[in-house]
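Collaborator request, handled under Task 6.
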Amino acid sequence: MFHPLPVFVGLRYVRTRREGFFVSFISWVSMLGVCVGVAALITIISVMNGFEGELRGRLVALTAHATLEDEGATADWHSLAERVLRVPGTVGAAPFIDVQALLGRSGSLLPVVLHGIDPAVEPTVASIDQHLLQGRLVDLAPGTRHILIGRVLAWQLGAEVGDTLTVMVPGAQMLTSGGRPLLQTFTVSGVFEVGLKDHDSGLAYVALDDAAALAGDSVRPALRLKFDDVMAAPTRSAAVRAALGGQVTIRDWTQEHAAYFRAIRIEKTMMSLILLLVVAVAAFNIVAALVMVVNEKRSDIAILRTLGLERRGVIQAFLTQGLVIGLVGTLLGVAAGLAVANNVDAIVPALERVFRFHFMDPTVYYITAIPSEVRTGQVVTIGAIAFVMTVLATIYPALRGAATEPAEALRYE
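Structure tokens returned to the collaborator:
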């Protein structure tokens, strides 16, 4: 006989037998419920991680890792950039000027942020070239008055490459003395698409000198920074601030776009709680199955007790049955979840071909493929939570089985 005895008894109760088929069926259904819940949770969280990574990549591609402003800096930004690059972990620094303006064409007038950059330095801090049509970044030479606009903005204005746009920059004198706004004409040299509405519909790129001419002498260039690790941007930003001192203002990408990632974090939390309910329902099924096993095996428990099995042994027997159900269900769920999450890029196109529809319609969504990013820590956490829930579900039936009195159970046998 297998030893220890409580483990042997618990494993025997897991097996399907003709006289206890219904109870065993409930046990297998409970195991399947745990498996489905864990697999669904791993898959959904991995897909949401993928969307979060895709969004982060698109944001960082144009906004760099951090922005730095120094109120005491001179108009020459080179000296400030040299000081910043001496800070460990900083691998790039490029100047920029943001100007609030209005773009006009054929009677249409739309608000836009003119982002003045130096095309010779900009690629060191942002992978902007991959998002620009035909790499037109080089056209932003000083004094040429060329402009790069987003795809949505181009559609709204009806503008194409080579068209002329009117740029209007309202000044403070318009409010104080009824002055006229500053007007200049720019030629569209390229159209870019990032895949984010805020960028594609409200952002335009011009040369740094052209932006400075529009902004006036009161505005000085700030710096866009790139670090060796994008996820370490908060730490690297703090190091830059400590190294420079003075009246320095630095904001990393996690602060600039906090609303996006806060929304994703809340959505992931709520989705996790909802899917954990599936595991919770399976855990309640385990409670029901074990309670029925206790009621069915009252005479067996009484005989084992009369033969010398202690209450602790009875508890261990039913804990063994519950732990086997929970452990097998959790492991199968983790395996199934990893299999699906790691092959989303192959599964989704196959389902689209079979059912003849698109999960992410390209006419509606910027991101047309479903990404997936499996994180080991999350998988371990999900598996551990599911297993703990099943363990907790076995406590009450085990205690109830241990409370069985041999004389009472055998009275009418």
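The cover message to the collaborator said: "The first strand starts at residue 66 and ends at 70. Residues 172-178 have pLDDT under 50 and may be disordered. Please let us know whether this matches your experimental observations."
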